[in-house]
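Issue: copy button drops trailing tokens. Both records pasted manually instead:
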Amino acid sequence: MRWGGTVVVVGYTHKDVTLNAGRMMFREIEVKGSLGCGLQDFPKIIELVKTGKLKVEPMVTHKYSLDDINEGFEVLEKGEATLIRSIAIP
């Protein structure tokens, strides 16, 4: 994590997560949580996809198998991710 960076937590776990408060303070790191969108938005989004008003497939510009997931991370790290969305396919 770079100095002054932001960590966005988008996954879920029932387990506690430990953070080093001293490191966060010293490096001025910010931590945020995100659902992506509110639960109330999902039915409308699903309906838009079902009716074809929202085209999801063109938004996926890269696909990686779980075996190739590190390649996807490298693309992000190098700043080559001028894409809308990359996905991992189990």
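Record 2 (pasted manually too):
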Amino acid sequence: MFKKSDLFILLAVIISFFVSGYLWFGGNQMEGIFTAIWVPSILGFGIYFKLMVMGARNNE
């Protein structure tokens, strides 16, 4: 069901989420917000490449 690349994308999202929470509650709100922006960016990146692979398979 999940490929190795999917797991790496999810791992990057989880790490980014926890780092942003750590920064936010540690008193570095601006750095926490900046790191929190990475979460949807990484997810969008992963979805884009997943769709590219699916499209390439359908064209074969």
